Each structure stands twice: as C-alpha cells, then as structure tokens.
Amino acid sequence: MHLLDVDDLTTDELTAVLDRAAEIKAQPEAESDLLDQQTLGMIFEKPSTRTRVSFETGMTQLGGHAIFLGPDDIHLGHGEPVKDTARALARYVDFVMARVYDHEDVEGLAEYSDVPVINALTDDAHPCQTLADLLTVREKFDGFDDASVAWVGDGNNVCQSFVLGAAMVGLDLTVATPEGYEVDDDVLARADDLGRAPETTHDPEAAVAGADVVYTDVFVSMGEEDEREAKLAEFDGFQVTTDLLGDRTLMHCLPAHRGEEVTDDAIESENAVVWDQAENRLHAQKGLLAWLAAQA
Ligand code: CP
Ligand code: NVA
C-alpha cells in the first residue's frame, strides 16, 4: 500500500486514518511503542519545515526512528535511478517518505519499493497535507456536513489533493483560480468519479460567498522561482485580505508569503487556524503511519 495521492485510499480507509489520527492525538502516550524498531526513510529534493519535523517527531513519538535524506545525502539525483534507490531503501527501512519535484518519481519509488511509499509533496499532489486539512475541518466544524470551503489561489499540488479529499468525505468546495492555473482535468474527473467535483470559477469573490472557510497557498511554489514576476501579475486580485476573508475561517498549508497570497493581518487574525492545521500534520501522519503499519 502506497499513498501517492489521497484517492489511493478508499473513503472508508481515509476515515480510518483520520479516526486513528484523532485517537493518537487524544492519547499520544498510549502509542509510544507502536513503531518500535521501525524506520522511516525521508527523501527530500525540496526544502521543508513542517513535513520534515512532523514526520521525524511523529516517528520518535511512536517509538521508531526517521532518517533525513536530503538532496546531497544520497545518490538519487546524482546518477542513481529511482528504481535502484527504491529497491535498496526497502531492504533497510519500513516506510519511505518522499518530497520530490516530478510526480513520476514517487510513482517510480512506489513501483519498485517493497515497503509503503508516502508522497510528502510533488508538483502535482500533497496528500499528507490533505489528511491534516481534513482533520482540522472535522475538528472545527464537528464533521464535514456543515462546512463549505472556498479555495482561492493556485490550483496545483495542495489544492489538487484537497479537491480529491473533499470529494471523498463529501465536503462542499469551490475552487477559484486565475485562468491558466486551474486544477488538472484529470483530478476533476477523479473527484467527479468519487462523487463530488468542486465548483470552479475565476472569481474569488464569488467563491467565498456562502463559504465558511477560505483556503489559500503560495502563488509561487517551490521550483517556480523563475516564474515569480509573471505569476504575481497573473494572481492579481486573488490575495486573501481581511475584506475577502470577512468572518470566515482562514486555512493555509504554510509556508505563507505574506503580502502575496495573504495579508499579514488576515493570517494573524483570530479567524486563522493555520497553527492548528500545522499541528495536525503531526497527528495526521502518525495516524497514517499507524494505519499503514497495521496493514502490513
Ligand atoms: N505545508 C508543508 O508541507 O510545509 P513544509 O513545506 O514546511 O513541509
Ligand atoms: N504549493 C506549495 C506548497 C508548499 C507546502 C509548493 O509546492 O511550494
């Protein structure tokens, strides 16, 4: 079992992971030996604060161990093919977690790995973020039935996994992106197959009307630095200000680029739940690791 995107899980499995996360969050000490002697290999081609620290801390808290493998630490990216890295790592570790640019690289790791591969962000998907996001919405709104989310910004990795997760749990979602930055058709088709493709628009005001939550992400993602000036111009009008936010809840996967996709006063306001969301990365991933271990 690999988690390359949220819809690698069935809806029942997703609910089981979220339930396990909530259970461990409520009583973390009860699981302090769960992954005794187990190791997570963590491949990072891109920087990370939350993902690296929450996975490593989560493994420690579950009684296991994590190894950080940065871009200059291993042969991947320096001549060794993905399939060789995958087969070698699987002889040592119990789980592989990978943050890479090209989604095909996590697919390659998964194809050749005998242990679970967890996608920790590619250019196309960020399922671990979605697990934490769904846990956060479920906590704040006591389930998914009474929450409506407006995504405002780029329709790329974080948004795409959230679209799939929202479809799976029946969460009402509208996605507002500039033209040319929409969610991929393939992701919308998968969400439709899961029973709930989001509404889509190019109008942020229309998206937030009737929403309880506004969710945004950086306009310039990791690896897009050369597109910075062009993207900032194309995303004009999509900044989440206190005016656009109103009394709605603000979500952001972080890191935030204040003054670009969100204003400082919006993210510092009482409406923002971004620190709870960041904390839930830890609990959600512990739930995922515990659930994966139970499948083995
Ligand atoms: N949200 C998220 O994945 O944060 P990091 O890039 O800090 O890991
Ligand atoms: N879209 C952002 C998410 C960071 C967690 C990026 O890819 O850089």
From TrEMBL:
Residues 146-292 form the Aspartate/ornithine carbamoyltransferase Asp/Orn-binding domain. Gene3D superfamilies: Aspartate/ornithine carbamoyltransferase (3.40.50.1370). Keywords: Cytoplasm, Transferase. Its EC number is 2.1.3.3. InterPro entries: Asp/Orn_carbamoyltranf_P-bd, Asp/Orn_carbamoylTrfase, Asp/Orn_carbamoylTrfase_sf, Asp_carbamoyltransf_Asp/Orn-bd, Orn/put_carbamltrans, OTCase_ArgI. The keyword Membrane does not apply. Belongs to the aspartate/ornithine carbamoyltransferase superfamily. OTCase family. HAMAP family: OTCase. This is Ornithine carbamoyltransferase. It comes from Haloarcula onubensis. The lineage of its organism: Archaea, Methanobacteriati, Methanobacteriota, Stenosarchaea group, Halobacteria. The gene is argF.
